[in-house]
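Thread: sanity check for a docking pose with NAI

Original post by kr_44:
Hi all, I'm comparing my docking run against an independent structure prediction. Below are the sequence and the ligand SMILES. Could someone generate the full complex and paste the C-alpha cells? I mainly care about where the ligand ends up relative to the chain.
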Amino acid sequence: MSERIAFIGGGNMASAIIGGLIKQGVLPQNIDVVEPSEEARNQLHSSFGITAQAQASAALAGAGLVVWAVKPQAFKEAALAAAPFTANALHLSVAAGINTDSIAAWLGSERLVRAMPNTPALVGKGISGLFARAGVSAEDQKRVEQVICTTGEFLWLDTEDKLDVVTALSGSGPAYVFYFMEAMTTAGTEMGLEREQAHKLAVATFAGASDLAQTSAESPQQLRQRVTSKGGTTAAAIASMEDNDVRALLIDAMYAARERAKKLGAEFGAA
Ligand SMILES: NC(=O)C1=CN([C@@H]2O[C@H](COP(=O)(O)OP(=O)(O)OC[C@H]3O[C@@H](n4cnc5c(N)ncnc54)[C@H](O)[C@@H]3O)[C@@H](O)[C@H]2O)C=CC1
Ligand SMILES: O=C(O)[C@@H]1CCC=N1
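Reply from moderator J.T.:
Ran it for you. Here is the predicted complex with NAI included:
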C-alpha cells in the first residue's frame, strides 16, 4: 500500500480508517486530508502526525484512492471543490444515504465504491457493507478491501439499496447497543450498584454475549433460551419486554433509520 490516499473530511470515520491504515504500516506522509475545521486538523496532527489541508488543492492529484468521509449535507460542495484534482483516482464514499449516481455525476467518475462502516472501526472491530459501481474493476475492489479490512470485517452487496439496510442495521447499530447499555446501567444503579460496577457489568455482558453468538453454532434465539430458565428471572424480564413490544419497537427503529437514509439521499443527492 505505497500509493497516496486522500481523505475528504477528517472527522470520526476518516480517523477510524486512518488509524487502521497507520497500524498496518501506511506512512502518515502518504495520507492527504482535506478538513476545513482547524480543531479537527489539530486533532489529526496530534493523533497521527498528519498535516491536513483546509481546502482541496492540486496536492490531491497524487492520490490513487480518495475516501469521502464528509456528512451527506456537505458532500456535494466538497465533491465539486475536489473533483478537478481527483480525475484519475478510485473513489470510496462512506456517507450515509448519498447514492453513487449522485457521486458519480459530481465527480465525473464511475470508479466508485460506496461503503457503510460503523464506529467499532475505531478499535479494528467494525463491519462494513460495500457496493461497487460497474466501472470498478476487480483490482479496484481488492484495493478497497485492503483499506477497509484495516477497520474490521466487510461484505459486498449486489444492489445499492441494500446499503440503506446496512446503514440501519450495523451503521447505526452501535448506537442501539449503547442505548441498551445506558438503560441497563441506569437500572443497575437505581437498584443499588455503584455506577461504575453497573457500567462494567453491562459492557462485559454485551462483549461476552457477542463473542458467544459469534463462536456458537446455535442461533441467538437458542442462546437466549439457554439463559431463560422456566419460571426464572430472565423469563420475567423477557415477558416484560414482550408485553411492552420492545421487539416491534426495535424493528420500527430500524425502518426509521432506513427511511432517513433514503431521505438524505433524496435531499442532498444530485437533482
Ligand atoms: N459516525 C458514524 O457512526 C458513521 C458515519 N458514517 C458516515 O461518515 C460520514 C462522516 O461522518 P463522521 O466522520 O461521523 O462525521 P464528522 O462530523 O466527524 O466528520 C466529517 C468532517 O467533514 C468535515 N467537512 C465539512 N465540510 C467539508 C468539506 N467541504 N470538505 C472536506 N471536509 C469537510 C467536517 O469539518 C468534519 O470534520 C458521514 O457521511 C456519515 O454518514 C458512516 C458510517 C458510520
Ligand atoms: O447517523 C448517521 O447518519 C451515521 C450513519 C450511520 C451512523 N451514523
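The chain has a mean pLDDT of 97. Hope that helps with the comparison, let us know if your pose agrees.
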